[in-house]
Write a structure and sequence with these properties.
Layout: H1 2-7, H2 11-17, E1 45-48, E2 50-51, E3 62-63, H3 65-77, E4 81-83, H4 85-93, E5 100-107, H5 111-122, E6 128-131, H6 154-162, E7 166-169, H7 182-200, E8 206-208, H8 216-224, E9 229-231, E10 247-248, H9 255-290
Helix pairs in contact: 3-5, 7-8
C-alpha cells in the first residue's frame, strides 16, 4: 500500500495543504437547484454498491452476480442501455437520453471490476464507480456491522478509467458532508477530485454524496469545486444537477420491482416539480409585494 498512499495522500495531509481562502475555488454559475435539464424530470439512475456473494449483508448493499445479470438483462430487453452518469448527462443535454439509464456503484468495491464489469461489457453497457479517494486499496471500515469488503486499488481505478469507465469522487474518507465547516467541505470536494484526477490522468467531473446525505452548503461546495454534477439518493428541494436522485437496487429486485421503482421515480419527480413550482411562485409573489 505504500505506493498507493504515496499517490493519494491522507485526508489529514489534504486538510493541511488545502487553501484557506475558499473564494479561490473555481465557481460555476449554475445555481445548485438547477434541474438536470430545464423543464424536465430527473434522469433515471440506478444505485448499486457491491456485486458479490455474501452470507451476511446487514446493510442490504450486496447484489449477487446472478441477480445482477438478470437485472441488466431486463434493462436490455426493455430497450434500455445502461451508461455512466457522465454519458447520461451529455446525452440529456442534447435530448438523446430517452432509452438511457444511469448505472452507479457507490464506495468503489473491488468486486465492481471482478463481477459487474464483465456482465456490463457483455451488453455494451457502461457505468460510474464512485470511489473514496483516500481509502483506495483498503476496506469499508465505515460499515461497522457488515463484512469487510476490499476497495478498488489505485492501479485498478487507473485501469478502469483507461478502459472508459467513469470514475467519480465519493469524498476523501466516506464522511457525511452536511454540517461540516466550509473549509472541510472544500477539502472533501476539491482535494478528492484533485487526487483522483492525478490517479486517472484526466478530469473527474462527477461527485456522489457519502450516505446520499446532502444539504445546501454541501451542494454549493460540490458546485464550487468544479464538478459537472452530483448524485444524491432521495428527491428533495435541492433536486437538480447537483443533487440527482437515484433508485436503490438490491438483491430482491426482479423485473416487477424494477418496474415499480421506475414508476415511483416518476411520481416523486412530479411531486418535486410541483413543489418547486409552488416555491418559485411564492418567491415571486413576495418579490412583487416588496417592489
Amino acid at each position: 500500500m505504500d505506493n498507493e498512499r504515496g499517490t493519494l495522500r491522507s485526508a489529514r495531509a489534504g486538510v493541511t495543504n488545502a487553501p484557506s481562502d475558499r473564494a479561490r475555488l473555481p465557481r460555476s454559475r449554475r445555481p445548485v437547484g438547477e434541474p438536470a435539464r430545464p423543464g424536465s424530470s430527473s434522469p433515471w439512475i440506478l444505485m448499486y454498491h457491491s456485486v458479490a456473494v455474501e452470507k451476511e449483508d446487514p446493510y442490504q448493499l450486496t447484489v449477487s452476480p446472478e441477480r445482477f445479470a438478470e437485472q441488466i438483462a431486463w434493462l436490455h430487453r426493455r430497450g434500455r442501455r445502461g451508461v455512466s452518469v457522465r454519458e447520461l448527462m451529455r446525452a440529456r443535454a442534447h435530448g438523446r437520453d430517452d432509452k438511457l439509464v444511469g448505472l452507479t456503484f457507490d464506495d468503489g468495491y473491488a468486486d465492481f471490476a471482478r463481477y459487474a464489469v464483465p456482465i456490463l461489457q457483455a451488453y455494451g453497457f457502461t457505468a460510474t464507480a464512485y470511489v473514496v479517494a483516500d481509502l483506495l486499496g483498503q476496506d469499508n471500515g465505515w460499515d461497522t456491522e457488515g463484512p469487510r469488503k476490499k476497495l478498488l486499488t489505485v492501479e485498478e481505478v487507473t485501469e478502469l478509467a483507461a478502459a472508459g469507465w467513469e470514475i467519480g469522487s465519493h469524498g476523501l474518507g466516506h464522511q457525511a458532508l452536511p454540517g461540516l465547516p466550509a473549509d472541510v467541505l472544500a477539502v472533501q470536494t476539491r482535494e478528492s477530485r484533485r487526487l483522483l484526477e492525478e490517479a486517472v490522468g484526466g478530469p473527474v467531473t462527477g461527485f456522489c454524496y457519502p450516505y446520499g446525505a446532502v444539504d445546501a452548503p454541501a451542494a454549493l461546495a460540490v458546485r464550487d469545486a468544479g464538478y459537472d454534477y452530483a448524485c444524491a439518493i432521495a428527491h428533495s428541494p435541492l433536486t437538480g444537477r447537483f443533487a440527482l436522485p437515484r433508485c436503490y437496487v438490491g438483491d430482491r429486485d426482479g423485473a416487477w420491482r424494477l418496474r415499480a421503482k421506475k414508476g415511483r421515480h416518476r411520481l416523486r419527480d412530479a411531486v418535486t416539480e410541483l413543489r418547486r413550482g409552488r416555491r418559485i411562485r411564492a418567491e415571486r409573489a413576495v418579490t412583487e409585494r416588496r417592489s
